[in-house]
Design brief:
Length: 413
């Protein structure tokens, strides 16, 4: 396959190259605009067409779109087939139409960013797959479970191309062993929770943390949460948005702990966690920055707040069934009793009181937390980190085991 000349290379300092079939990206030394470039065997000339963008990722997308529109592979050997084309075909035909389209797009980008112009055979080779796994783990801080989800998208794209007659065969894409599934994110002490919140550099990230604590919900439920889902008349938060079908990750109706009522009352319309008037799609960058400033390790992630409150509630003797209901672990039901249960004054009473107590502990240790819960947040830069003493970080809680004969001790770290 013809290679580009120095004049058609990506450009000084770019260190990037992207190719689909016989077409690749290039730009002239004095221009930042990317071009579709190819070798015309008939005229023995290298030809170019402007893609009218200076953004490398947008140029990748435009080149792939053009190639798909003009040339779709048919029974191509995996040694010649473009992985980028396989991913694009899968996206257009299937992934863009499913409920998890956003996650599929992120996974496709991981594949494209790492493999670039690689063929399907090159990408599927075991040594390259191992390098891909390490890159996802070390460069993007993904867990083995998340890496397997990324791999599943590439596997699905290759199988889709094979079934549609675009590939002559479908090479095997394995997955990582994850062993026994452990909860995501280790629990935090109260002081560590304060340090995480005070390590945030934006109000929307602080709101995200406090709403995680108020509800014990999963991170994606908090990102989806809107003002309309908060029933202040009955002190309820409907974590499942209207029209969303419940899944195995059940989103329950929970009570609004008193400490968080003002925060929700004064929230703007629309999403409770938003940036520049738009819902926040990811909190990874803000979370990592706060975690580094708090001096905590990679085992602390947004799920840590959920597990912190779960352990706290058990420590506070909240009944196990009530903890499960707060976390959304119970199976969704549709009986009349369950529909009206949240309106019972005793509904999740112990859990709500326990969460309120946790928030009060945060208030007395952090002026920032106190002010934002009271809707009196000033300029974030004006807040000094709280002078926290080591709270030990280790205590034990006792709960019955399933046989109700012995007791099990859980260490909170």
């Amino acid at each position: 396959m013809p290679r580009s000349s120095a004049r058609d290379a990506p450009g000084p300092g770019d260190g990037k190259r992207f190719q689909v079939g016989d077409y690749w990206l290039s730009r002239q030394a004095r221009s930042e605009v990317w071009r579709r470039t190819w070798y015309d065997a008939d005229t023995r000339q290298t030809k170019r067409a402007s893609l009218r963008t200076k953004d490398f990722r947008e140029a990748q997308q435009k080149l792939t779109d053009w190639f798909v529109d003009h040339r779709r592979q048919e029974h191509a050997p995996v040694a010649d087939a473009s992985l980028a084309l396989v991913l694009k075909s899968y996206w257009d035909d299937h992934a863009s139409k499913i409920r998890s389209a956003d996650n599929a797009m992120v996974s496709c980008r991981y594949w494209l960013d790492f493999f670039g112009e690689a063929t399907v055979e090159e990408a599927a080779a075991t040594p390259m797959q191992r390098r891909f796994h390490r890159w996802l783990s070390e460069e993007h801080d993904l867990s083995n479970n998340t890496i397997n989800r990324v791999l599943s998208v590439g596997r699905a794209a290759i199988n889709h191309a094979w079934k549609n007659g675009e590939l002559a065969s479908a090479p095997f894409i394995g997955e990582l062993e994850v062993g026994e599934k452990e909860p995501l994110g280790r629990p935090l002490t109260i002081n560590e929770t304060v340090r995480m919140i005070e390590g945030m550099r934006s109000e929307h990230m602080i709101r995200f943390c406090l709403l995680m604590i108020a509800t014990c919900a999963r991170p994606e439920a908090i990102r989806d949460l809107t003002r309309a889902q908060c029933d202040l008349e009955h002190d309820l938060i409907h974590l499942n948005p209207p029209g969303r079908r419940q899944t195995k990750k059940y989103r329950p109706i929970v009570k609004i702990p008193p400490a968080f009522r003002t925060l929700i009352e004064t929230s703007p319309d629309g999403h409770l966690v938003q940036w520049a008037g738009k819902p926040v799609g990811s909190v990874k960058t803000g979370w990592r920055g706060a975690r580094d400033r708090a001096g905590l390790g990679k085992d602390v992630n947004p799920y840590s707040l959920r597990h912190t409150l779960a352990r706290w509630m058990r420590k506070e003797s909240v009944p196990a069934w009530e903890v499960s209901a707060q976390l959304g672990h119970k199976e969704p039901g549709h009986s009349t009793t369950e529909i009206y249960a949240p309106f019972d004054p005793a509904y999740l009473g112990s859990a709500t009181e326990s969460i309120h107590k946790f928030a009060c502990e945060l208030r007395v240790r952090s002026k920032l937390v106190e002010d934002i819960l009271d809707a009196k947040l000033q300029d974030l830069a004006s807040y000094e980190p709280s002078d926290l003493q080591d709270d030990g970080g280790r205590y034990w809680i006792r709960t019955s085991d399933p046989s109700d004969v012995n007791t099990v001790l859980y260490q909170l770290s």
